């Protein structure tokens, strides 16, 4: 048993905004009573629920390909030295698995959602997730370019497609569904893309990105997956793509949807020279439509490596930068591209991107619906989140940073007109309570009785980046894992899964198709349950028709 | 071979071009065979890179590779017309004159082909699960091979920390060999060193290395009598399901037991910081 006394508590899930309050922990959860045990005096310190990352890339084939491509970065970054009980690792743009756990926990994050897993290599992703210590994990399976499902949608066999989707979610032992550039990744197998919701997809006459998106959102809602469709829209990164994004949002009225890294989808203009922010327009629409959540996908200046299932975009980025390019194609399912990238304040496009991420976080007025992310490692590495928190909380600091942008950025961004500053309560919402709710993990991001005792205790500090970068204590499942910058314990995290129900007869339909098209036998395809360490199956939900 | 919506006739809808210095069995299975002169891989790749961009090449330069201009033009034409091309390459490219420069030329060629159509390149890996070792080393240490952990964190330098270099220099005072038989393939100074130090071998069979080792632990063969995971050369993991029982333990079990025994010993690396901001 453990007691934390005197801390100033920010717990948005329970409406607690900076109250001095004692917390009791027993058996890894918050408890209503305390009998004996250690007491931690948190007088003068700030307490929040542990951070939850709704969208990150920390495990699996693509980030591991990025590690292979960037040995020069591993050499210049921080190194974790092994001890008798702790594995070694390297930080940097694409940290190693053990270091990923240390770095997330080191800034108070205790749950992460790996946002892109092909079924074919899901076994690999789970092996890596097992090697990420401390934090709890979940993962999303890539489905919106899956040939078998697209074929069914083409033929109007929506009901069967839904069963096949459910089958795949369970086969991959995933927690939800990610759709990346629906139809565009399928077309990329032939060197093409699908930039608009009405674009032709190679090999299909009827199905378009628009139909894939609406049908997937509907299927996921009907299956009751706790986390809605997690969507990476078409036409990522391109000037003028705000039209595609708004059109996508209109397609999704009446469904739940999570828009991934919205920053990359909020641009106006029609070429790189006149690209401008359309964050304000997008935020207006978003504010009026409560069916949606989003994560920022914010950009910070500096070096990183970009990895996405959006293969055609990565080929363009390779042509623009002339830097290294890696490409993976995953049979009938998806693909991935990898390009190292440096965001520079002197580069007008990068400067606009930097502003757009912050604008979205500041102009979307409900912190329960917009979450902190950098689409790690795409916009910046996750261990730079404290810098973004500082930008959100201090308008003076924002203005200081804006002074370094090129002068011709005027009229291209709206950030200079925004004076909103986030409060600690709002920070706790966008980093923890909000993403937990969007993920459908009610035991997370909540300091209430019976919830998982994942919390972080910060020093009060006028230097916000330092405050959030160096917690006084981090607790995971009631255990002190970080204390004043030192790693204390490295417990194994859980993995969250969902098991949607489907017609067991669907195997008979799928098997011959699969054996025709895949180069793996049908029996070997699903990830075996015993390969998931400390798995926890979350119940599917029933969605009320009204209200949402 | 797999049939698909776009390739309904399977193998018949695919074109295989074999490039080698001699006509092997694989060449007979291919649709076309190009015989390149030994040691001319880099030149041939560079000429093809120039030709796809319609740059001028002299007949003499082409002739020196052993392949005619006409054949090359025809090949490039077919490549540009392909819907999805893959360049597979192996040790014949990466271990002959030019070495990693050849591989770099091929990878650049594949990237550049994407200006015309979809193309990728993929190394053909040898031996059982070499890709699996490579994949796991990358997620645990950031590097695929040639890794030193002797400062308590991973460092990478092929040519210095690769197994053969470490053994030839005589840097180790012990060797633990699993899933490999370096006694059969490595240069003599490396093998001599293995014989000199305590070498421990885990292998289902008696091998060159097990004969010179101090300890040989017989293990169940993975995938036949022990379960596990094998990574295909495209990095797709396959579950290994044992068909037979074995009286011997799996490699995994032996390694785990050795690790547990070592954990009982006092720590030899004390007073180290947890983390260093810049590596030394
Ligand atoms: Zn992403």
Fold-level CATH name of the largest domain in chain B: Rossmann fold
Count of discrete structural domains of chain B: 2
Structurally, how many domains make up the residues of chain A?
A: 1
Shape of chain B: globular
Percentage of residues in strands of chain B: 15-25%
Bound molecules: zinc ion
Largest interface: A-B, 60 and 46 residues
Percentage of helical residues of chain B? 25-40%
Q: What fold name goes in the CATH topology slot of chain A?
A: TIM Barrel
Structural class of the helix and strand makeup of chain A? alpha/beta
Indicate the structural class of chain B: alpha/beta
Q: Indicate the CATH class of the largest domain in chain B.
A: Alpha Beta
Summarize the structure in words.
The complex is a heterodimer of chains A (548) and B (280). In chain A, the strands form five sheets. In chain A, strands 6, 9, 10, 11, 12, 13, 16, 20, 25 and 26 form a ten-stranded parallel β-sheet that branches. Chain A has 17 helices and 26 strands. In chain A, β7 (79-80) and β8 form a beta hairpin. Chain A is an alpha/beta fold. Chain B is an alpha/beta fold. Helix content of chain B is 37%, strand content 16%. The model of chain B has no long low-confidence stretch (mean pLDDT 93). β7 of chain A pairs antiparallel with β12 of chain B. Zinc ion (ZN) is lined by residues 55, 57, 115-116, 260-261, 308, 375, 378 of chain A.
């Amino acid at each position: 048993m453990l007691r934390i006394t005197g801390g100033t508590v920010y717990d948005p899930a329970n409406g607690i905004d900076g109250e001095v309050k004692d917390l009791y922990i027993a058996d890894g959860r918050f408890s209503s009573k305390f009998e004996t045990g250690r007491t931690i005096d948190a007088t003068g310190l700030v307490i929040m629920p542990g951070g939850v990352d709704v969208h990150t890339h920390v495990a699996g084939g693509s980030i591991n390909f990025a590690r292979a491509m960037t040995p020069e970065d591993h050499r210049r970054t921080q190194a974790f030295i092994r001890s008798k009980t702790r594995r070694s690792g390297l930080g940097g743009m694409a940290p190693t698995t053990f270091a990923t756990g240390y770095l997330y926990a080191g800034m108070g994050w205790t749950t992460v959602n790996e946002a892109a897993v092909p079924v074919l290599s899901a076994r690999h992703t789970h092996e890596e997730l097992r090697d990420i210590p401390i934090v709890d994990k979940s993962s999303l399976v890539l489905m919106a370019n899956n040939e078998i499902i697209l074929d069914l949608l083409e033929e109007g066999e929506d009901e069967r497609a839904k069963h096949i989707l459910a089958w795949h979610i369970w086969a991959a032992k995933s927690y939800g569904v990610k759709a990346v550039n629906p139809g565009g990744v399928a077309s990329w197998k032939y060197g093409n893309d699908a930039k608009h919701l009405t674009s032709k997809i190679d090999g299909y006459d009827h199905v378009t990105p628009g139909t894939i998106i609406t049908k997937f959102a509907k299927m996921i809602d009907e299956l009751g997956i706790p986390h809605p469709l997690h969507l990476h829209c078409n036409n990522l990164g391109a000037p003028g793509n705000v039209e595609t994004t708004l059109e996508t949002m209109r397609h999704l009225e009446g469904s739940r949807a999570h828009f991934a890294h919205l920053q990359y989808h909020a641009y106006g203009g029609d070429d790189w020279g006149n690209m401008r922010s359309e964050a304000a327009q997008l935020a207006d629409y978003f504010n009026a439509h409560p069916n949606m959540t989003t994560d920022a996908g914010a950009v910070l200046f500096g070096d990183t490596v970009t990895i996405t299932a959006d293969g055609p975009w990565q080929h363009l980025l390779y042509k623009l930068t002339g830097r290294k390019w890696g490409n993976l194609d995953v049979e009938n399912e998806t693909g991935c591209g990898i390009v190292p990238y440096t965001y520079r304040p002197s580069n007008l496009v990068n400067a606009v991107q930097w502003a757009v991420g912050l604008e979205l976080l500041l102009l979307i007025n409900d912190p329960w619906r917009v979450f902190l992310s950098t689409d790690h490692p795409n916009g910046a590495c996750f261990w730079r989140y404290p810098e973004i928190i500082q930008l959100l909380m201090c308008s003076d600091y924002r203005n200081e940073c804006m002074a370094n942008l090129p002068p011709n950025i005027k009229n291209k961004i709206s950030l200079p007109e925004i004076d909103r500053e986030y409060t600690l309560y709002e920070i706790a919402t966008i980093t923890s309570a909000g993403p937990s709710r969007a993920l459908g993990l009610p035991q997370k991001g909540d300091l209430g009785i019976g919830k998982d005792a994942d919390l972080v205790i910060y020093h009060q500090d006028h230097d916000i980046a330092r405050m959030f970068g160096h917690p006084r204590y981090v607790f995971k499942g009631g255990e002190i894992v970080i204390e004043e910058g030192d790693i204390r314990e490295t417990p194994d995290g859980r993995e969250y899964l969902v098991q949607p129900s489907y017609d067991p007869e669907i195997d008979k339909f799928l098997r011959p198709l699969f054996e025709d098209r895949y180069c793996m036998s049908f029996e070997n395809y699903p990830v075996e349950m015993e390969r998931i360490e400390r798995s926890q199956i979350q119940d599917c939900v029933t969605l009320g028709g009204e209200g949402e | 071979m797999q049939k698909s919506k776009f390739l309904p006739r399977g193998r018949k809808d695919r074109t295989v071009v074999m490039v080698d210095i001699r006509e092997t069995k694989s060449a007979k299975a291919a649709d076309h065979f190009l015989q390149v002169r030994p040691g001319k891989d880099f030149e041939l790749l560079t000429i093809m890179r120039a030709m796809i961009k319609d740059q001028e090449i002299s007949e003499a330069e082409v002739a020196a590779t052993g392949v005619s201009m006409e054949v090359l033009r025809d090949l490039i034409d077919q490549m540009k017309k392909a819907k999805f091309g893959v360049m597979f390459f192996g040790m014949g490219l990466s271990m002959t004159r030019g070495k990693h420069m050849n591989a770099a030329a091929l990878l650049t060629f594949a990237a550049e082909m994407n200006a015309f159509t979809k193309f990728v390149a993929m190394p053909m890996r040898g031996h059982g699960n070499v890709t699996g070792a490579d994949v796991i080393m990358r997620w645990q240490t950031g590097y695929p091979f040639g890794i030193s952990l002797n400062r308590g964190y991973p460092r990478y330098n092929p040519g210095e920390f690769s197994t053969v270099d470490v053994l030839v220099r005589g840097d180790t005072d012990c060797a633990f060999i699993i899933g490999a038989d370096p006694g059969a393939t490595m240069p003599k100074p490396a093998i001599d060193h293995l014989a000199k130090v305590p070498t421990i071998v885990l292998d289902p069979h008696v091998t060159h290395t097990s004969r010179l080792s101090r300890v040989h632990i017989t293990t169940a063969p993975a995938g036949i009598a022990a379960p596990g995971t094998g990574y295909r050369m495209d990095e797709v993991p396959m579950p290994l399901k044992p068909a037979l029982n074995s009286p011997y333990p799996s490699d995994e079990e032996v390694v785990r037991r050795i690790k547990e025994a070592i954990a009982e010993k006092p720590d030899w690396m004390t007073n180290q910081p947890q983390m260093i901001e810049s590596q030394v």
